[in-house]
């Protein structure tokens, strides 16, 4: 294998691993920009991965063929939104501790989804899928050295993630909706005084985080694993949180951080191709993405400025 081909495949693998992180980090930005901490992104990804697996299975059984994965994505959006709704009701309406609520979502998703899968598939802990997403090469652009193989021979979800980065940046920083959302995360009492419905905007932010986190989970089920199992989402939600923080709650920054973490996961796979890696315990190789996540977070401490009202429930009587 020549160097150009290897680099192109490495870039492609980086984007494959980055896609789920991009969706989920973008979702986290909506929630935290509105002032609600969302530690439950891992659980929301699990809900999405589960719904995508089950939804796609029943869609393919109904004869929908190549359209079945999109039904799975839709199911993931709905399931992720429902999971986020639990978090929103607990933290916004009842003003529960946002961190604890997120942890509860993670535990609930991890246990409930595996239990339901075993019920639906006669004790099997996996969803049997035939119709999943396949890479879609773009004619002519695919033939560009390195970049062609890396950028223009990707899954549909990867193209969608790249588009959403630009769209969400525009929405957050160039539209009245984005200004209102950011204002309730920075100074909710001032926003309320100006007529912004703080509760409504925070609900929207949390629900969007669930929907995008659901798509992030669906991406893994329908591309890299082609099934849902108990270990389909193994820490990617927490890596997405790290990408969001390292990216300073900015869609473009989160995209760059997600690509970095995706690269670390791709490197983990490529390292195993070399002879010298066989002398290294596999556990150490699988640790690479998580070790890099910790290092990056340590380096980001003190440099990232979170929204001012993040984690603080809003009480209109105390404004």
Describe this structure as you would to a colleague:
The chain is an all-alpha fold and 319 residues long. It has one domain (3-135, 142-306): ABC transporter involved in vitamin B12 uptake, BtuC (Orthogonal Bundle). It is 69% helix and 1% strand. It is built from 13 helices and two strands. The protein has helices spanning 3-33, 41-61, 68-93, 98-120, 147-151, 156-174, 176-186, 188-193, 198-224, 236-246, 251-271, 282-286, 288-300; strands spanning 136-137, 153-154. The chain has a two-stranded antiparallel sheet. Helix 2 (41-61) runs parallel beside helix 4 and helix 6 crosses helix 7 (176-186). The longest helix has 31 residues, at 3-33. It is globular. The model has no long low-confidence stretch (mean pLDDT 92).
Features:
two-stranded antiparallel sheet; 13 helices; 319 residues; mainly alpha; 2 strands; ABC transporter involved in vitamin B12 uptake, BtuC; globular
CATH level 3 topology: ABC transporter involved in vitamin B12 uptake, BtuC
Strand element count: 2
Mean pLDDT: 92
Anisotropy-based shape: globular
Strand order, biggest sheet? 1-2
CATH architecture: Orthogonal Bundle
Q: Class in CATH?
A: Mainly Alpha
Distance between the termini: 64 Å
* Helix-strand string: HHHHEHEHHHHHHHH
**How would you classify the quaternary structure?**
single chain
Helix content: 55-70%
Q: Biggest β-sheet: count, sense, barrel?
A: 2 strands, antiparallel
Q: What structural class do you assign from the helix and strand content? A: mainly alpha
> What fraction of residues sit in β-strands?
under 5%
Poorly predicted regions: none
Rounded Rg: 20 Å
Q: How many distinct folded domains?
A: 1
Number of H- or I-type helical stretches: 13
């Amino acid at each position: 294998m020549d160097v150009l081909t290897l680099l192109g495949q490495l870039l492609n693998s980086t984007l494959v691993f980055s896609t789920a992180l991009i969706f989920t980090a973008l979702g986290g930005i909506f929630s935290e920009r509105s002032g609600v901490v969302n530690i439950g992104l891992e659980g929301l990804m699990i809900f999405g991965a589960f719904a995508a697996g089950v939804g796609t299975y029943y869609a393919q059984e109904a004869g929908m063929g190549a359209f079945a994965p999109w039904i799975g994505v839709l199911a993931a959006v709905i399931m992720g939104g429902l999971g986020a709704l639990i978090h929103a009701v607990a933290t916004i309406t009842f003003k529960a501790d946002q961190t604890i609520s997120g942890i509860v979502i993670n535990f609930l998703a991890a246990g409930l989804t595996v239990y339901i899968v075993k019920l639906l598939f006669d004790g099997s802990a996996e969803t049997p899928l035939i119709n999943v997403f396949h890479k879609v090469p773009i004619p002519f652009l695919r033939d560009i050295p390195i970049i062609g193989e890396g950028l223009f021979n990707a899954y549909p979800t990867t193209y969608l993630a790249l588009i959403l980065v630009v769209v969400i940046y525009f929405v957050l920083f160039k539209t009245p909706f984005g200004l209102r959302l950011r204002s309730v995360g920075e100074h909710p009492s001032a926003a309320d005084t100006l007529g912004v419905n703080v509760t409504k905007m925070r609900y929207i932010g949390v629900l969007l985080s669930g929907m995008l986190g659901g798509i992030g989970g669906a991406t893994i089920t329908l591309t890299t694993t082609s099934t849902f199992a108990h270990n389909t989402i193994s820490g990617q939600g927490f890596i997405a949180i790290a990408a969001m923080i390292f990216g300073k709650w900015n869609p473009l920054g989160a995209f760059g951080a997600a690509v970095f973490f995706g690269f670390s996961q791709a490197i983990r796979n490529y390292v195993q191709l070399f002879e010298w890696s066989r002398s290294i315990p596999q556990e150490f190789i699988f640790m690479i993405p998580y070790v890099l996540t910790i290092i990056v977070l340590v380096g980001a401490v003190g440099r990232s400025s979170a929204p001012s009202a993040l984690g603080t429930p809003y009480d209109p009587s105390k404004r």
